[in-house]
Amino acid sequence: MRVRRPFPIGIRVACACWLLAAAGAGAGEAPCTMRVESELFATGDEEPVARSLTVFRAGVAWDFLELPRADVAAGDARLAVREIVLHDPARERVIVIDPVRHVKTEIGLIRLERLSVSLANWARTTDDKLVRWAGGPDFSDDFTETDDGLELVGPRVRYAVAHVPAPSSAAAAAYRRFADTAILLKALLHPGGLPPFPRLAVNRRLEAAGALPAEVTLEIDGRLAPLAGRPERLRCVHRIHPRLLGGDLDRVQDAEAQMAAAEAVDLAEFVAQPPADAPERQERPGS
Predict the structure, then answer these.
(1) How far, CA to CA in Å, does 113 sit from each of 95, 117, 146?
(2) CB under 8 Å to 158, separation ≥6 — which residues?
């Protein structure tokens, strides 16, 4: 079996594999119920390097991220839950839980909005052509759209999204709200990689089309500095289900129990280097 190449800490590419969790429905709409399974594949790998399950229910989204286990040999396909995120838009917050260290941290959405402003100001003044392009704000001329897909092309980078109709307009809007929050959360917890604005632009196009992504590919020049070292091609496959399965509620209840028992810490402590036996953080499906 092919040995996995670990991705460097802090590199969480804005791959459009974006964990389609919902932050709840908009005003006047009933919250959508949906589950999305996502698998992320790096260049040449037959087994996923990460997997996620996102459960939309009762106006919140629970996102379960699986990464390679620390107690198995390199190349082993077994994954385990390494991060749980609660997206709670009604309370304008996200809660990130580390089930290995039994700690959690709460982040207000206003903090992510301020981060977005700071990243835009930085990206638009940098000397790097790709990073400056990724700072936006307008990508209109860089999109190509068809009935079942869209493509966004920039300097040395290409996003290709195959999409399917969303179960409802509420589901399309919920996905967009979650995906926007998830990419900014990634930028806060694991800085590095492309600025989030191309991804945010894709999110807007998907919602406008009433669609959800079924397969997303990110291609980027691997020789690029300062972004060198990442795989040149990431592909994420999504399986979207308009109903929850039998074990989903049990999994949510278990996550609620873990959240209640976890020690609350500030963000600086939460993002500190994990224990020596924990695996390196890898690119996640989505972000």
Answers:
(1) 16, 7, 31
(2) 151, 152, 217, 218, 219, 220
pLDDT confidence tier of residue 68, bands split at 50, 70 and 90: confident
What is the Cα 234 distance to its own chain's centre?
13
Question: Three-state DSSP class for 268?
Answer: helix
Q: Give the closest residue to 249 by CA, choosing from 33, 25, 31.
A: 33
Is the pLDDT score of 200 beyond 60? yes
Q: Does the predicted model carry a pTM greater than 0.70? A: yes
What is the maximum span of the chain, computed from C-alpha positions, in angstroms?
A: 52
Q: Are 285 and 19 within 8 A, CB to CB?
A: yes
| Mean pLDDT lowest among 59-68, 139-148, 265-274 | 265-274
Residue ranges in the chain assigned as alpha helix (H): 109-123, 129-134, 169-189, 197-208, 248-261, 267-270
81: nearest Cα among 63, 95, 94, 93:
63
pLDDT digits (tens, 9 = 90+) for 12-27: 333 333 333 333 334 4
Q: Which of 203, 192, 181 is nearest to 107 (CA)?
A: 181
In one-letter notation, the amino acid at residue 148 is D
- With CA atoms as reference, report the closest residue to 19 among 109, 94, 72, 100: 94
Place of tokens 């406008």: 208
Three-state DSSP state, 166: coil
Scan for tokens 């997206």, then name that residue.
87
